[in-house]
Amino acid sequence: MSADTAAEPAIEVTDLRMSYGSTIVLHGVTFRVARGEVVALLGPNGAGKTTTIEILEGFRMRSAGEVRVLGTDPAHGHESWRARLGVVLQSWRDHAKWPVREFLAHYGSLYAPYSTERITRPRDVDELLEAVGLTEQAGRRVGQLSGGQRRRLDVAIGIVGRPEVLFLDEPTVGFDPEARQEFHALVRRLAEVEDTTILLTTHDLDEAERLADRIVILARGRIVADATPEELARQVETGAEVRWIRDGERFTTSTRTPTRFVRELFAAHGADVDKLEVRRATLEDTYLAMVHAAESGRDGAGLPELGAPRAAVERVAEVSS
Q: Which CATH superfamily is domain 3-228 in?
């Protein structure tokens, strides 16, 4: 890879638009993914995530805008370009009668003509089976695998050709906690050791925070945030909600200085303060606030609503009546 090529983004999307008849799905989406970067595309159902991924893969024609993946317009991608991509789709095509190892070896052989001086394709099948946790199932027929094992096979199919860009659409659906953890380690290894560029969609904010260098949030076909997990987290560090009971009456207040507020509250009312708790906003609160703001047509989300589901609760004191 030349220095100029390495400097180019692996994925470049400019003013991407998509409509189905009178229904507009994507409204001028623009973002870039650097080579070797892991980017998570988040958003509620119907936000346009899968449509965006399918356009980048060359499976769907866009209505307008500019798209480049590894320097090529996906709408005109040739076979040698497609060999540089890996795809893990939500839907699964059944190959029930094939033994797992035989199927992967056959599928991988299709990539052999596209080896280069820098990249040897396909990946060793035994190493791949171990990487996705299917070594013990290597001799079983695909149709005998459990749902989670089939999903692991999907991932193996996606990376057997040593892709330079890997698209993962809801990759851990059906994974148990152990398999999910192993998959996360595999994704980081692909990015850090093999310099694979990864764009994934997920509904799991914790997964996005663990895996992604950047998080792009889509809502109603528009990007409402594009930042690192740390940058998003900083937006909620100062917001907190304090709740307490005094003389049988419930009180709630929002503050950017919760420690100071609690200290002053006890100084003023002491033992009369009961069931005190401080609720600090989480990254999920930020995500929900941004999505709700976009869906309601508001320009900015402001501070997240601290009463949102799964808000982290920090009980700083509890004084019995």
A: P-loop containing nucleotide triphosphate hydrolases (3.40.50.300)
Render pLDDT for 157-190 as a digit per residue (tens, 0 to 9).
Answer: 999 999 999 999 888 877 788 888 888 888 898 9
Tokens describing residue 236: 């909620």
Token pair 């851990």 is found at: 172
Predicted confidence (pLDDT) per residue in 132-157, tens digit:
889 999 999 999 998 888 888 988 99
Model confidence, pTM: 0.77
Element (H, E) at 100: helix 100-109
CB 18 within 8 A of CB 46: no
The full DSSP string for 141-193 is BGGGS-HHHHHHHHHHHHHTT--SEEEEESTTTT--HHHHHHHHHHHHHHHHT
